[in-house]
Amino acid sequence: MSSYKQASEDASGWQPRIVAFLCNWCSYAGADLAGVSRFEYPTNVRIIRVPCSGRVDPMFVLKSFERGADMVLVSGCHPGDCHYTTGNYHARRKLLALREMMSFLGIDPRRFKMSWVSAAEGSKWSAVIRQITDEARSLGPFESFPTFTLQEVKK
Amino acid sequence: MNNQEVEVEEGRTLLDAARALSIEIPTLCHHRAVPPAGACRICVVEVKGGGRPGLVPACAYPAQEGLVIETDTERVLASRQMTLRLLLARCPDSEVLKELAERYNAEPLPLEQKDDKCIMCGLCVRVCREVIGPSATCFTGRGADRTVSTPYKMLSDVCIGCGACAFLCPTGAIDPAEFCTHPLEKIPNEFNCGQDFRTPIHVPFPQAVPNKPVIDKDNCIHFKTGKCGACKSICPAGAIDYDMEDETVEEKVGAIIVATGYEMIDPAVYEEYGYRRYPDVLTSMEFERMVSASGATDGRLLRPSNGKPPKSVVFLQCIGSREEKIGKPYSSKICCMYTAKHAVLYKHKVHDGQAFIFYMDIRSAGKNYEEFVRRVVKEKNVTYLRGRVAKVYPRGDKLVVRGADTLSGGQVEISAEMVVLAPAMIPSSGVRELAQTLRIGYDEHGFLSEAHPKLKPVETNTAGVFLAGACHSPKDIPDSVAQASAAAGKALGLVSHEQLTREPTIGVVNEQTCNGCFECKNVCAYGAIERKELRDRKGQLLAIVAHINEGLCQGCGACSVTCRSKSIEVQGFREDQLFAEINAVSR
Amino acid sequence: MPALLLADEIGARRGGRDRCDRSDDYSVASAGRHGRFRCSVLIAVLGVVVLLIVFGIGGGTQKKRKLKAIQTGGPSGGCIPESLIDLPVDYEQLTQSGAMMGSGGLIVMDERTCMVDVARYFLSLLVDESCGKCTPCREGLFQMHEILNRIVEGEGREGDIELLEQLAAYVKDSSLCMLGGTAPNPVLSTLRHFRHEYEAHIKEKKCPAGVCKALVQFRIAAGDCKGCGLCKKNCPSNAIAGEKKEPHSIDASECVKCGVCYEECPFDAVKAG
């Protein structure tokens, strides 16, 4: 039994939920390589594949927090190596601008992470996940955005 | 000539006419790069008609209308024989003269013998004056006391040490090293790892493609001083053009295969092995070039320190491979096999030599590889020692290799006359910049990334760019060839269809909601956003909206994020689809 | 009749004249005391028979010795033996007999001139003049000179004459310029007319003219010697002994073979053998 599975459970049984947007060509392939190479990392991360980190609209990040994510990660190709040349630059700029506004929106900016993982970096991917999972656990559950149901709004 | 009619260009000599008819006339003082002198007289032929009768030198006598020449009369032969006898009396040890004397049956006569090497052909003087330029040597004295020397027999200030004189000398009588005070810097032959020297005009190596010479402009005398030009005057095809310039050629291609190969690390970083400190420590590449028949020593294995064959050679594997601190963590794959090969080659060249190999593991996974290594151990008596080497240091005129032999559990000290290091394999320099230009990936060592480690070993993430060989990972020739064939197959497959199949995940504009701001055009890396005019049935312009070119769009989605009215969606990665995913995974 | 011209006018007229309009110069030169030949400087008209020049104008041989040969045309010229003395001095006639007009010189040689030594001497001049560019002249003349040196030193070998002829033919045929083309002439013409002298040097190790020191032994014929003492007085090494009016004798061990006694004896009592 891996130590990680045990470590991610605390007394109350709560586990952080991390939503990760991975660009198809670099980070997603890197995560795949981590699996193929049998690197171990916590299972708290949920991966959404996008063609490029540049496809990630800031709304996706906010939506994830709204829907229950405790931490959001956007991971793309290393600057200079984007499969679509410039996509990761747009992502970087947009998401940094989002990070500036996060406190204003009521989200701890530490809950939003960006990383650059290439397709060959299986071990780096697993290291990134291990590190942010630990941090997510220490930050605790995200409770700033309550979930509104439609009835409650009408009320 | 010899009863055959022949025509040659104006200005050509009888020798040219003879060669046009494949008639052989010997020469000594003639060379096509240099104006003729007609001095040695060995090329004399007989004029029978059309001019003053008698013997004339074929190399210098101009061809004329109506000349009748015989090249093999008794008179010609008698003269030729006597010329050879006299020259041999002057230079009795010359192989060239002996061979010619034999060919023309010039039996020796009781002539006064001298002990000279120079036959006074004057080629050295003429080439230095007419072709290279400095006129460093000249004839001094007259008659039987004539010699070739520098003015006043003093060391020369003008000789550039080009060696043209020594090259042309038929008897090896002149050595510019004896009088040259500022010789040209010799150019180390890069292909032979600097073990010998090359000329500025050279074919890089015998198997070069194209197999044509190239001029190294930085070292060429013509480009430096405007003189020489010997290559151009010698080339029978007139192929040399000093005015050629480098051109940048643009080609539109459908596929690119990257096969940029490898280099090796410089083992001098491991000071304990003494590379570049002790002359008898070589890299495997230097060893390979030395034992090659086309190498600097014609394939003889010689110690750099004293030029003799080494009686003992120690091979060190894994220099920089499988090593985390200052080397590379990976295995370079090829070294175990080529070291075994080198040990066998060494034993073939030095039958009574001793070969030792220090190894960590033997990686011999290819077809018949393990059997080969076994044979090397058993039949060729090569001693394999499992352990690392701590130090290589000199003792007397030999080197001591001190290492561990883990199988017997002790230290060993071997007295070696040569040490060969197997350095780690790295991708060629400049590969990272190339990868960025091609938009393909690479790992932390610079090895180029394949699209999938198991399922797509020759493709990259960029459509149309393929990989082959050591640029992808350390590999040997059979594997490189296999990968190259696969890449070629993939490339051909790509360009051989009538229609190109592509991923459908491209952007689509909702023309109803698009307001024509064209912010999307600014972020598209492929220029796939075009202006489209919407017109009514009467042809009146209703709106200008964005339109995505299906051939160019790669589906990155940058436009979709930028669009303020959310009028662009990427098929398969639409906002509603992604929101559905977010919904599903966030809770 | 012959026109007498000054020596420097000869020089002015010498160069570059074409065969058919060459003017009527012919000079008879002396080699002076250093040489073996003695004659006077004279200029004669073309076509005048050699005999006339030598005896008529030139005054004949020294001490009325027997005429042996005439050498014409400078070092590259050839010699005419006494038997052909009635040749007219003109181009074709001279060339046919193996001599040449050359620079217009004429040297008279008497019986005390060794033709082998003459050939050797002229060849040495030509060896010095050779520029050395082409193999035949540079090497061939050198080898011929070596052979002749050996012959006059008494080390001539069987086959030397044939070798000389072979080399001479080669140098003449294959040289780059006419220096080499004419350099073998002294050897060729002396061989042609005086082969017996060469053979004597080689086979008998004797110099009939008494010139080649290695091959000569001077002795005084008692019968002819009048005891005048002229030889004894002039001998540099005091090798001659004898009383006045008595026949003198030469001590061979002291004799350095300078030839002064041979030259000076008014009665030709000193013999070379």
State the CATH class of the largest domain in chain B: Alpha Beta
SS element count, helices of chain B: 15
Number of strands of chain C: 9
Shape field of chain C: globular
Strand content of chain B: 15-25%
Please state how the strands of the largest beta sheet of chain C are arranged side by side: 4-3-5
Give the structural class of chain C: alpha+beta
Explained architecture:
The complex is a heterotrimer of chains A (155), B (587) and C (273). Chain A is α/β, with parallel strands linked by helices and 155 residues long. Chain A has one domain: 3-Layer(aba) Sandwich (Rossmann fold), CATH 3.40.50. Chain A is 43% helix and 15% strand. Chain B has 587 residues and is of the alpha/beta class. Chain B is 24% helix and 19% strand. Chain B is built from 15 helices and 25 strands. In chain B, the strands form ten sheets. In chain B, strands 12-19-13-14-15 form a five-stranded parallel β-sheet. A three-stranded antiparallel β-sheet of chain B has the order 2-1-3, with helices on one face. In chain B, helix 9 runs parallel beside helix 10. Chain C has three domains: 104 residues, Ubiquitin-like (UB roll), CATH 3.10.20.600; 90 residues, NADH-ubiquinone oxidoreductase 51kDa subunit, iron-sulphur binding domain (de novo design (two linked rop proteins), Up-down Bundle), CATH 1.20.1440.230; 56 residues, 2-Layer Sandwich (Alpha-Beta Plaits). The N terminus of chain C is likely disordered. The relative contact order of chain C is 0.10. Helices cover 38% and strands 10% of the residues of chain C. Chain C has 273 residues and is α+β, with helices and mostly antiparallel strands. At the A-B interface, helix 2, strand 2, helix 3 and helix 4 of A face helix 14 and helix 15 of B.
